[in-house]
Design goal:
single chain; alpha+beta; Immunoglobulin-like; 4 domains; 5-stranded antiparallel beta sheet
């Protein structure tokens, strides 16, 4: 009997072993997933859509448990609230890159029943027999707000989802202490911003101010009225109060193009948006600067507020006559470096001192004003000798320590080795005795005879010089008459003289702005300062502390025609706007010529 032999089916064996491996992997994964869930600590969190709302508005509250197995969920009693929707339940579970997450939520829509600060109590749930509670949440309920008839109105949606806010770093600084104002544009996540621009720049009356340059508009995350928002920092400025009292920061206004969802979708399921343009305005902000303390205030204090170092150095201590040396007075640190004068150096009259050369290396950033300011004096000795340059002191107020500091330097000595001797002052009534000096030739023989020779005589009459001097008056008289007539014509030309004087004055005030042509921010800052300085010199008023309306009123009282006033105010406004918009060099040159013409016109009328 022949027993047949069967060949082994190796393919079936491979499939069977693969199924076994797949089953093992599934079982291992399930065990790991179960271990992960069991390892998580169960927490019940409560989250609201807004922390502040009107009495007639609603809010959404969501309770979430992060672990499976939760049962017997009990919501809070919602005291002082009315439940108008819910609960709705949802479950989500994910496993990404080995990280497992689970969430089961219960959502309610509620409406407040009264105003004030209300509290939503704790919800509770049981997980594996353990009771877990959520944290209570406080809600601020204000007066009822005006609600639109159509809640899908794009303007209403934009108003509810976009907010322009001015944030200040300190509301009660010292006079001279820097504070920051930051303008933030809060945008909810379902709104798209296509374009935004400043339509009216804020006014900082009573402050020295400097706009801080921002590189781009990076997107940041934050909260507005308790809700999650994205926001952009649109502008940031450093303000240094120059006086006490209530100072107001006017609103900044922006025109914004917004993409608002319409609630409809296209064929592919994409949300359809509608573009609208709206103007948004920040709220007014009040700052109340404090006066610097009088206690411990040094006599030489001149308004320096911050943290500083003070140094005086001499380039050469040993000199020859007419050889120069430099004295450097330098203040470095962080504070209001642009708003106080450096201490002045005094030197003996024998050392001729020239006007100092001011040098500034200042950086204005988000951390404040920092850098170094120095005066460089040139001194030239006139006489030989040793001279003393007295010590100098500098005082400043540190707002963090709330006290004054005074720094004193050492005396300097300049030794002049060569040069004229300084003659002592002698009283005229005092006789000075001098010793008789014999040179060996004090007594000589007297000559008894002389021999005279005739000298050659040079006769002035009919000489070349004689004829030149004779004809010179005939030539100078007509030239003098011509010059006198020209001077009379120039003196009688009142309008021409006024024009020339005004043009010279305009060039004087606008010289700094002309140097900054091509540098947008520096140019417009110098241009605005020149206009204010001109009015300050002419009218004796601090125009930096008053509004454009007040300037208009003052000029009208001085009988300046309305066209010139309008041109002057326009230049000031353009200086504000141009800092935040693209400007070409040609436009800056045109603005410079306009400012020059305005000053000339004003000066002629004043």
């Amino acid at each position: 009997m022949i027993v047949p032999k069967f060949k082994k089916n190796t393919r079936s064996q491979k499939c069977f072993s693969s199924l076994v491996k797949l089953r093992d992997i599934f079982m291992i994964s399930f065990c790991l997933l179960s271990l992960t869930f069991s390892a998580q600590e169960a927490t019940l969190t409560a989250k609201v859509s807004k922390n502040k709302l009107g009495l007639n508005q609603r809010l959404r509250i969501e309770f979430s448990i992060n672990k499976q197995g939760g049962d017997d969920f009990s919501p809070p009693k919602f005291t002082n609230f009315k439940v108008v929707g819910g609960p709705s339940q949802s479950v989500s579970q994910s496993w990404v890159n080995g990280k497992v997450s689970f969430s089961q939520s219960y959502t309610y829509i509620i409406q407040p029943q009264k105003k004030g600060e209300l509290t939503i109590g704790s919800a509770r749930i049981k997980v594996a027999g353990k009771k877990i509670l959520s944290e209570p949440i406080k809600i601020i309920v204000l007066d009822a707000v005006a609600l639109p008839k159509n809640p899908n109105d794009p303007n209403y949606i934009a108003q509810q989802n976009i907010h322009l806010v001015a944030e200040i770093s300190k509301s009660k600084p010292y006079v001279g202490e820097g504070v920051y104002v930051e303008y933030r544009l809060y945008v909810s996540k379902n709104i798209t911003i296509y374009n935004a621009g400043v339509t009216e720049a804020p006014q900082y009356n009573g402050f020295w101010n400097q706009v801080i340059k921002i590189n781009g508009y990076p997107l940041k995350k934050g909260k507005y009225n308790g809700e999650d928002y994205n926001y952009f920092v649109m502008q940031k400025a450093l303000l240094v109060p120059t006086k006490t009292g209530k100072l107001t920061i006017d609103p900044m206004k922006m025109g914004i193009v917004i993409g608002v969802p319409t609630g409809r979708s296209d064929f592919f399921g994409n949300v359809i948006t509608r573009n609208i343009t709206r103007e948004f305005s920040s709220a007014r902000k009040n700052i109340r600067p404090r006066m610097l303390p009088l206690e411990g205030k040094p006599a030489n204090f001149n308004g320096a507020v911050g943290s500083f170092e003070f140094n005086v150095s001499l380039s050469k201590e040993v000199l020859k006559a007419n050889e120069s040396s430099q004295i450097k007075v330098a203040i470095s640190g962080k504070g209001n470096l642009k708003l106080f004068e450096l201490p002045e150096i005094t030197t003996p009259i024998e050392l001729e001192k020239y006007q100092p050369e001011r040098k500034e290396k200042i950086k204005i950033s988000a951390s404040g004003i920092s850098g170094i300011v120095s005066d460089l004096y040139t001194v030239v000795p006139q006489y030989k000798g040793k001279y003393k340059i007295p010590s100098v002191s500098f005082s400043y107020f540190n707002p963090k320590e709330r006290k004054y500091h005074t720094i004193n330097t050492d005396d300097f000595f300049v030794d002049v080795l060569e040069g004229k001797e300084l003659k002592p002052v002698v009283d005229k009534n005092t006789l000075i005795k001098q010793a008789v000096i014999s040179s060996g030739k004090n007594f000589r023989y007297i000559q008894k005879s002389r021999s005279f020779k005739p000298t050659k005589r040079n006769d002035f009459f009919k000489s070349n010089l004689f004829y030149i001097l004779l004809l010179l008056p005939l030539l100078t008289i007509p030239i003098g008459i011509f010059i006198v007539k020209k001077n009379e014509e120039r003196s009688n030309d009142f309008m021409g003289n006024k024009l020339r004087k005004a043009e010279k004055l305009a060039k004087k005030y606008l010289s700094e702005a002309q140097k900054q042509l091509g540098k947008k921010e520096a140019f417009y800052e110098a241009l605005e300062r020149a206009l204010h300085n001109y009015l300050k010199a002419k009218l004796g008023i601090e125009t930096a502390d008053i509004s454009k309306e007040k300037i208009t009123e003052i000029l009208e009282k001085r009988n300046i025609n309305s066209k010139t006033i309008h041109q002057f105010i326009d230049v000031l406004k353009h200086s504000d706007f141009a800092r935040y918009s693209p400007v070409t060099n040609t436009e800056m040159e045109k603005e410079f010529e306009t400012a020059k013409q305005v000053i000339v016109a004003l000066d002629k009328q004043l």
